[in-house]
Amino acid sequence: MSTPSKLALVTGASRGLGLAIAEALSERGFHLILSARDQGTLDRVVARLPNSTSVACDIRDPESVARLAAVVRKSKRLDVLINNAGIAGPVQPVESLDYEIWREVVETNLHGTFLVTQALLPLLGEGSVIVNNVSVAARTAFPGMSAYNSSKRGLLAFTETLREELRPRGIRVVALLPGATDTGIWKQFWPDAPRERMMSPKTIAEVVVGAVTLPASTNVDELVVTPSAGSL
User: Fold this and answer.
1) Catalytic residue among 148, 159, 176, 205
2) At a CB cut-off of 8 Å and minimum separation 6, what does 165 contact?
3) Please, are residues 225 and 203 in contact by the beta-carbon 8 Å criterion?
4) What is the pTM of this model?
5) Any residues with CB less than 8 A from the CB of 184 and at least 6 apart, and which?
6) Phi, psi (5° rounding) for residue 186?
7) SS3 for 37-81, per residue?
């Protein structure tokens, strides 16, 4: 069903899963505000997606997030917030992990999601939906990825807390926990990963869009999507 009057914001929308979600929402008739750090890449995405606009934003920076929120406020409401922006960092054991890498990962994946969510909460009303891209790393420890695992486990706790806080307001909060998906993030920690055995971003995007377009009375707390058994 087309929903032309609904507005969605997608962070990390210039590539990978964020881009796939933006495309899927566009196909369903959503108006879009797309965010990522690189304005040039965003402009190319907006040029081919109808009813979309873009705002470059570094979600780790409160001032940058405030500028993003100011653009969204012009629409006076927000129906869907997709907190997708995130990074992985290189594979390194704790004993040799550089603090700056640790900080960048945690600030992006956890602090950034908090900043965006807090800034946009005043625009979310009954029937709106927040989807946080959490990852199966929130529940499975991967050696050499302490920053990523920690940020995602913290993000899951944040998502669960937010859900309980917003439930009385009729705002749904969904944790997306995808397994191995064929996106550029693998270049950061496993360049030779078997991409052909992973799920496609489009597959995950369709699951996400299906969830956010369910009736408001439908209770969906988590979307756990993993490759078929034995594929990875």
Assistant:
1) 148
2) none
3) yes
4) 0.91
5) 15, 16
6) -65, -25
7) CCHHHHHHHHCCCCCEEEEECCCCCHHHHHHHHHHHHCCCCEEEE
Separation CA 40–CA 53 (nearest Å): 13
Q: What is the mean pLDDT of residues 212-232?
A: 79
Between CA 175 and CA 178 the distance in angstroms is 10
96-126 CB burial, b ≥16 within 10 A, e <16 = ebeeeebebbbbbbbbbbbbbbebbbebbee
In DSSP terms, 32 is beta-bridged to 8, 52
| Domains located in the chain, CATH noted | 7-225 (3.40.50.720)
**In contact, 193 and 88? CB cutoff 8 Å:** no
pLDDT at 4: 47
Six-digit token string for 88: 């992985």
> Which residues are CB-neighbours of 162 under 8 A, at least 6 positions away?
117, 130, 173
Contact 161, 134 (CB under 8 A): no
**Is the four-CA dihedral 199, 156, 56, 126 of positive or negative sign?**
positive
pLDDT at position 151 over 50: yes
d(C-alpha 78, C-alpha 46), whole Å: 19
Tens-place pLDDT, residues 91-132 = 999 999 999 999 999 999 999 999 999 999 999 999 999 999
Catalytic annotation present for 148:
yes
170-185 pLDDT, tens digit per residue, is: 999 999 998 765 566 6
